[in-house]
């Protein structure tokens, strides 16, 4: 994630801003330029369309979900459906007449838009159900039914990603984290993991990379249902950290891929944010430089995964220590073994190939 600048006054803008805190201009994200733009209304009446100061474009429209304060993106030029590149992948949303469900949906949209920022940065193929009615990427945000007792499960099925609205309840999410023995559980983590399953279909199976993926992650033809039952009955093997980034990754090669994919997105987007702030780690006691790093590069364009890992480890060692000084959990409570780095390298190469293929 990047920092942005208001074109009207030069103030710093953040990704979720709706207005500039200094000059008051309405601001919105321009997905085709991957930047925030200050807006001015077209004409004298209350704005229906906007001029973008980032590129002097006229006639731009805010996404229809801006009406619910759930989106701050602009639609594409010439768009007729009224939704931005992220929101046109929405299927079902909660009952927006319920204030609690509306608030939860807004939280989900924050995480979803951060996900789409990364997907757009990599120029990944993004088909929705209008483009591909059977396998296009679509999100259903569903609430549990108190009358029937039906509980919504978060998951992926042939391009359909369901996110349980219950996950927006911080207390319930923490309860589930503890129940499942997870060191980390966030809305953004759910989105990044589940979309990993989708892109396994698109980039691996349909992209001719199945054999190469199996050589790294294992044989995905193993029965998934049985693997899931075994995981919940027996847990992860004692030495799981030697080969996997999380205990859930040990369940099945599909879950290993999705977990590793999610962690790759965590690493790249967090390093970009740290780089935007010009962060540098240089401990006084680090005489050999093993705990030092200078974040002055674009991680989305890193040539090799080792460049990312060499920056990530000192950065997270420092941030984990800072969090502990505040009595908080580690920012990144995971170990990157050599086997995990090799898996991250596969994801890195997969995304670089997709990015090159997606360039105009």
UniProtKB/TrEMBL annotation:
Gene3D superfamilies reported for this sequence: 3.40.390.70
Domain Zinc-ribbon per the UniProt entry, residue ranges: 3-98
Protein name: Zinc-ribbon domain-containing protein
Lineage top rank: taxon: Bacteria
The organism of origin for this protein: Bradyrhizobium diazoefficiens
